[in-house]
Design a protein that fits this description.
By secondary structure, the chain is mainly α. The protein has 7 helices and no strands.
């Protein structure tokens, strides 16, 4: 079953359950998928594209949640956190910091990176291999700490 079909089924269930937070998040995801599918020259949407859309949506909500927290807006913060929880159900399991560190060390060894000037080589490979499994900011911070 494709992501779009799963989202459609879950939207129906959220409507039956009258769960407005879940419904709002699912409709936002479906909107992103439909926009991507109808782009000029697009011939459907691949699993990688779906993963990128979900990752981007989760990141946007995390950024918004941070801003709402700084501005002391608990009402809006709760909505963002609820939507993040719904989006994360469709993302691959998130890696722990230790798991990310181990994978990054493996990539550093494979590439032969020694100094901070090699960060670009490591980041390019790391972001491809860890796509959807962790946040880019975490990867960047860990790469910096490992390449000292």
């Amino acid at each position: 079953m494709s992501l779009k079909q799963r989202i459609d089924e879950d939207i129906k269930q959220a409507m039956r359950d009258k769960n407005q937070d879940t419904l709002r998040a699912l409709r936002a995801i479906k909107s992103l998928i439909l926009l991507e599918e109808t782009k000029e020259g697009a011939h459907g949407i691949s699993a990688d594209d779906e993963l990128k859309l979900l990752t981007k949506a989760a990141k946007q909500r995390r950024d918004s949640a941070t801003i709402y927290e700084q501005q002391n807006r608990p009402d809006l913060l709760e909505k963002e956190i609820a939507e993040i929880a719904v989006i994360e159900k469709y993302l691959p399991k998130q890696l722990t910091e230790d798991e990310v560190k181990a994978k990054l060390q493996e990539i550093i060894d494979r590439v032969g990176a020694k100094a901070p000037s090699d960060m670009g080589k490591v980041m390019g490979i790391a972001m491809k291999e860890l796509a959807g499994q962790t946040d880019g900011k975490v990867v960047q911070a860990l790469v910096k700490s490992l390449l000292v």
